[in-house]
From TrEMBL:
This is Protein kinase domain-containing protein. InterPro entries: Kinase-like_dom_sf (IPR011009), Prot_kinase_dom (IPR000719), Ser-Thr/Tyr_kinase_cat_dom (IPR001245). One of its GO terms (molecular function) is protein kinase activity. Residues 24-310 form the Protein kinase domain. SUPFAM superfamilies: Protein kinase-like (PK-like). It comes from Acropora cervicornis (Staghorn coral).
Length: 310
């Protein structure tokens, strides 16, 4: 079902790769030594993990495109423990972008939500000792800034849906939809607008449940904090619910894609009703993530579809 070879991150321009692999073990969730500054500054950070070996650098950008961002995949082995890491690197010109994303995912990482990509640490490249496994791998500039996420074996939802060997039935549709709306509810609770919830930023991983899949929301490169990025929203006639509604509208688009690819043509009409609610322009009518989650779970039960952890 999932990719077995480490490949270049290529699915989204500023976020995660098309497929990833190898054994891993979840380790530190977020740096326990962090402390908050103002909402416009990145938090203090400690040293990154030691013993990281770069195993894929084809995503490192050439000199002439150093004003952009890219990814490298790293592996760490310490005795019986091993971990895969996805390191997003920013050029010195993109320091502000690094600060904004690091601040946001560090704040979000405190929730340790199972359906949100796990933030690990962030630092300046000159403070991180990376071991390049192959001598021909190009090196990261010392002036770069690094942001590290846990690297879970997974496949972006758009690639998952294209896989003709996979049959997306109604059970799996509800699992993915409920996982995703739970992640969005977490964003709402933290006052975060994702801005890029699509089938390419939703990852499908294996899980100990029936059906054996789990959806993970990634791709926070363009996300915004209401407290930081919309300080005067009420003065401009926009409510917080209206701003956060963008998450719901984009969820509706993903749900539409799931329904379009569902192998069971007789999916409940109520699902289409949920899509219509998500696209409602009136913020007072459009439901929030918690309400949509309740609608999905009720519909799940009504259709004798169940989910069970193993």
């Amino acid at each position: 079902m999932f990719g077995r070879n480490i490949v270049a991150p290529s699915v989204f321009s500023t976020d995660l790769p098309s497929s990833i692999s190898s054994s891993y073990n979840l380790m530190s969730r977020h740096n326990p030594g962090t402390s908050s500054k103002t909402s416009h500054e990145v938090q203090e950070y400690g040293a990154p993990e030691k013993g990281l070996k770069i195993v894929n650098t084809s995503s490192i950008l050439p000199e002439e495109t150093s004003n952009l961002v890219g990814f490298v995949v790293a592996y760490r082995e310490n005795g019986k423990e091993s971990a895969m890491r996805l390191i997003k690197h920013f050029s010195s010109e993109c320091e502000d972008d690094w600060k904004k994303e690091s601040y946001l995912v560090n704040e979000l990482g405190e929730t340790e939500h199972p359906n949100i990509l796990t933030y690990c640490w962030h630092c300046k490249a000159q403070e991180c000792d990376l071991n390049f496994k192959r001598t021909l791998f190009p090196r990261l500039r010392k002036s770069a800034f690094l942001l590290c996420y846990d690297f879970t074996e997974s496949t972006p939802l758009d690639e998952y849906l294209k896989n003709k060997k996979i049959v997306l039935n109604l059970d799996t549709l509800f699992v993915v939809a409920v996982d995703l709306i739970d992640a969005i509810q977490c964003l709402e609770n933290r006052g975060i607008v994702h801005n890029n919830i699509t089938t390419s930023t939703v990852l499908i991983a294996e899980a100990f449940r029936v059906p054996p899949v789990k959806a993970i929301l990634a791709g926070f490169g363009s996300s915004q904090l209401i407290s930081r990025d919309f300080p005067d929203c009420n003065e401009k006639g926009r409510t917080i619910k209206d701003i956060l509604g963008k998450n719901i509208v984009q969820f509706g688009c993903v749900l539409t894609e799931l329904m379009r690819n569902c192998s069971e043509s007789g999916e409940p009409d109520e699902l289409q009703g949920i899509v219509h609610l998500c696209s409602e322009q009136d913020a007072d009518i459009r439901p929030n993530a918690s309400q949509i989650g309740d609608l999905l779970r009720d519909l799940w039960r009504q259709n004798d579809i169940w989910d069970s952890s193993v």
